[in-house]
Write a structure and sequence with these properties.
The mean pLDDT is 96. The chain is of the alpha/beta class and 78 residues long. It has helices at residues 12-24, 38-44, 61-70; strands at 4-8, 28-32, 49-52. Helix 1 links the parallel strand 1 (4-8) and strand 2.
């Protein structure tokens, strides 16, 4: 099973480019345009990596990173 990377990016062009390269490198990719659902989804299916844009609508990347680091089940995910 391929590892999954959660990408939080609100620019559709950048999202497509990142997805293309990660999938070409044999990763599954889940794209989010806001940070609102990322932690909830990650607690159900833990990703191998989070890629966070700092400036996105809703929870920004820094707030999201703080929330991930405070979660016992997700804190070790890079």
């Amino acid at each position: 099973m391929k590892p999954t990377i959660y990408v939080v990016e609100d620019d559709p062009d950048i999202s497509r480019l990142v997805r293309h390269h990660l999938e070409a490198a044999s990763y599954n990719v889940r794209l989010y345009s806001t940070g609102n659902l990322v932690v909830t989804d990650a607690e159900r299916q833990r990703p191998a990596l989070f890629l966070l844009d700092i400036m996105v609508p809703g929870k920004d990347g820094l707030e999201l990173c703080r929330q991930i680091r405070q979660s016992a089940s997700l804190a070790a995910v890079p």
